[in-house]
Amino acid sequence: MTQIKILGSGCANCKRLEALTRKVVEEKGVQAEIEKVTEYPEIMKWNILSTPGLVIDGKVVSYGRIPSEQEIAAWLTAK
Amino acid sequence: MKTKLSSLRLWLVMALAILLWGLAYSALQPLSSWLVYTALKMPADSRLAESLAFFLYDVPKILLLLSGMIFLISVLRTFFTPERARAMLGGKRQGLGNILAALLGIVTPFCSCSAVPLFIGFVESGIPLGVTFSFLIAAPTINEVAIVLLLGLFGWKTTLIYIGSGLLIAILAGMLIGRLKLERYVEDFVWQVQLSQPAEDDQLTWEMRIQRALDSVRDILRKVWLYVILGIAIGALIHGFVPGEALAQVMGKKAWWSVPAAVLIGIPLYSNAAGVIPIVSALMEKGASLGTALAFMMAVVGLSLPETIILRRVLKPQLLAIFVGTVAIAIILIGYLFNLLPLA
């Protein structure tokens, strides 16, 4: 089971990242649990300075931008 | 071998895009006049025709300028990240730190939606509060959209004056906030956050830089195109229908109260540089003075209500009020300065 966290306080880009991630997870048939992290103290534990952030299995894979579908798919299947 | 080829193709496509951009840009003026005066057969001396020609020329011009220049600025900005800015500012003292922070605030990509993580990440890693504020004031005030609009509608002189003033305000307000020792007015949870190791920097190839710059052009255009059209439409109406010098009495140099009034109106006004700069450009043509116009633009762009509300999460009301007050006063002083200086 892949653990995915979306870091962001609910800005428009955070919602777009969440939707995109869900889409890729579904398309690739990945077994994943997606959690939204919206509280700043929790977000800042990952030490990112710009949101949204994407964490896959305990590792920040991107922050401050919305990665492409291909990138997300590559991260999900790489492990 | 395969990557070499695709990168060659990328550069060819870029060259072609630049060529097309240049052709489109140079065709704008003749095309808009032809459309209004020849195709629509509007009389040359009518105010409506003048406004329409102005609008039909300025909208595509600004949109073209935005896409071209934001692309270049975005490529440049892939070399600067908030993480790198933080690393550079670590261990810097007041003064030099404020200057560096304001400069980094200009070149580092910044979105006011990320103001809170940035604030926490900066102060938690030991960057002084005043230095952090210098960054947080410069970043939204001197943004890429404002720079493009100023260049397109006012020329490079006013653009440099705007950038210089923004830097000065960010440096001075940050230094003052630093001197006042206001750390106790930062929300307590900020000091308790435990930062982990920062995430690794991406290693970017040129293809990735160009791809990201294209993404940011698309994002920014999607956000501002409506403001550009509305702003220029209002500007065009002012240009065509408000008599010359009509505003000299209320927004000119002699009306001393016009500067603070411009700032007070500007702070709560929710717009962005794309909407406000075309209107200000038309107002100046009708007699508003440079200092008053500058103060208004900076108040709208640099101090926004949404950002203030976001920052309330990490700043207690006292510090929030000092922050807004200090920046507002600094903008007012800059406005007076440029109204008094014998400039343009």
Written description of the protein model:
The complex is a heterodimer of chains A (79) and B (344). With 79 residues, chain A is an alpha+beta fold. Chain A has a single domain, classed as Glutaredoxin, CATH 3.40.30. Chain A has helices at residues 12-28, 40-44, 69-78, and strands at residues 2-7, 32-37, 53-56, 59-63. In chain A, strands 2-1-3-4 form a 4-stranded mixed beta sheet. In chain A, strand 3 (53-56) and strand 4 form a beta hairpin. In chain A, helix 1 (12-28) packs across helix 3. Chain A is globular, with a radius of gyration of 11 Å. Chain B is mostly helical. Chain B has one domain. Helices cover 75% and strands 0% of the residues of chain B. In chain B, helix 12 (258-266) crosses helix 16 (317-340). The radius of gyration of chain B is 22 Å and the shape is flat. The mean pLDDT of chain B is 87. The A-B interface holds A 9, 11-13, 40-41, 43-51, 53, 60, 62-66 and B 81-83, 86, 109-111, 113-114, 116-118, 120-122, 124, 189, 192-199, 202, 212, 215, 313-314.
